[in-house]
Amino acid sequence: MTALRFVFRLFCIGLCLIYGAAEMFFFFPFYTPRRKLRAIQIWSHRVLASCGMTLHTYGTLPAENRGQMLVCNHISWLDIMAVNAAHPGRFVAKDDVAKWPVVGYLATQARTVYVARNKGAGGNSEKLRNVTQALKDGDTVTLFPEGTSSEGRTILPFKTGFFPAAAEAQVSLVPVLCRYPNPDGSSPNPHTAYYGDISLWQSICMVIRQPRSTAELHFLPPVAAGERQQTAALIREQLIAKQQELG
Question: What is the pTM of this model?
């Protein structure tokens, strides 16, 4: 039964990737911006379902069609699917994502802003301007300021290079805590984390071998943009406090 479930879910993920690529290639040029976001949202829900994962959201979801920056901790490639399923928008992601099979193509078509590794805002000044303009244009942009993924038991120090974009665009930042809890509801599910030397294929296999799994997104109250170090520290403190509260 476990082997059959694995094959079935892998087949469903493959179908999702093929369908998503075909929709973006053939239909996205004719979609309105709103329709594109809705298509990304539906597709992300399908990917999560294909993985045997249920998404739960808590707190007040941000308003649509308003420039804002979501600031989220980073655990897995599933984070992007979860956020897009709840509130689709643009992402700031490491440039490695662009090289992922199919997923990289989809991310590029979804106007992901790619960031070069270990260069900070100084080496990504054009990207910073792109994020600022996206926020001014009313887009939602999601940032993973840890710069890398973790097991989910702690929140790593934030890289602050892209926080000035929110201040320049005069938009608020929305802290978002992402969790993948075990069935007990408290401890992190280690099979969902994609970090360290784990390959993308190994991560997918670990996820779909589970009978069922859960993703949680906790949307906290918006924070006004200010000096980047102070704003980043405040948001990180809020996410850590929420994580400790949930266990």
Answer: 0.90
Between CA 168 and CA 225 the distance in angstroms is: 9
User: CA distances (Å), 144 to each of 122, 155, 164, 236, in order?
Assistant: 18, 11, 14, 11
Split the chain (247 residues) into runs of 10 and give each run's mean pLDDT. 90 92 87 90 95 96 87 95 93 77 72 68 73 91 91 91 94 96 85 90 94 96 95 97 90
Question: Tokens at residue 72, please?
Answer: 């989220």
Beta carbons of 63 and 171 less than 8 angstroms apart: no
Phi/psi for 30 (5° steps) reads -105, -5
What are the residue boundaries of the structural domains of the chain, listed by start? 2-246
> How far is CA 231 from each of CA 93, 136, 185, 220, 222, rounded to the nearest angstrom?
20, 19, 30, 14, 11
What is the dotted CATH code of the domain comprising 2-246?
3.40.1130
Instruction: Give, for 219, the enclosing helix (H) or strand (E).
Output: strand 213-219
- In whole angstroms, give the CA distance from residue 203 to residue 13: 13
Q: Could you tell me the sign of the dihedral formed by the alpha carbons of 43, 217, 53, 96, in that order?
A: positive
